[in-house]
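Pilot study result, target chain (76 residues):
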Amino acid sequence: MMKIIQLNNSLYDICQKHPEVISIMSELGFTHINKPGLLQTAGKIMTIEKGCKMRGIPFDMVAKTFEQHGFTLMED
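Predicted structure:
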């Protein structure tokens, strides 16, 4: 069964509910997510879509990778 991630949720909230998202995001090139304290600060206002825009990572690739890990990314 696919787990659903609401795209309007902050990375902090998503990672609290699904800790495995940290390694998925890191694998995709969001390496800053591993820096101590970053998730607790910037992660509270950052979303997956904002992160894609900031890092220049195609959202389609991110969505596909999440699907491979058993997640569905959904808009509100």
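One observation from the pilot: The longest helix spans residues 59-68. A full batch analysis is planned for the follow-on phase.
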